[in-house]
Amino acid sequence: MRLKKQVQFDKNNMILKLGNHEKKINPEDDFIIQALQNHVTDDARFLRLVMTKEQSDEIEAGFRMAAFVEEYGEFLKEEPAGIISYHKE
User: What is the pTM of this model?
Assistant: First the structure.
């Protein structure tokens, strides 16, 4: 999962900007946005981050990430296999 290259992040006002579109970042999503800003791209790493931060299991973390993608999807770059793809073997 990655932000589109054209996305600007206004850290002072906690806003994502893409062209003329702006979206206020929910405070509970700040740590995920920070990870994206720090170039975390691995879905499994995002799941571990959510599990640790929110004290949740893999299933809850997966639903949380899906909700994040739904909320901020227009700012995220689509990966060839989809935005989130996680398979536990």
Answer: 0.80
